[in-house]
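Minutes, project check-in
Item: structure for the 126-residue chain
Input as provided by the requester:
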Amino acid sequence: MNTADAFAQRAWKRRVELGLSQTELARRMADRGFPWHQVTVSRTESGERPIRLDEAAALAGILGLPVVFIDADQPTEGLAADLAEATRTIAALRQRVADLERQLGKANARVSHLEGVIAQVKAAVR
């Protein structure tokens, strides 16, 4: 299987996993400046129509595929699991950042309060 055919097969599989119709995928490609229609998707997925590199990159972006999926010779076993794990890690890190931002906000409010208390004490001492 050549690189273009392998990529087309992976793109078809991912489109189906995402529940996207060929028409919806064509619309999203058109939104990115590619004059695609449902028949373009069909012919590309079946290998009847070659895919250009810029189209493949845009398609990979729409489908959430790493660009490595363009290369048929690149081993892809385990990449989906790695991607899922990375996605979970990123989500956990984002949650941690949000928690730390909340804590920082509380700490800043406490510092402001204490600065006010200090100013009152200084005013009372004068």
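Outcome recorded: The chain has two domains: 3-74, 77-126.
No further action items on this chain.
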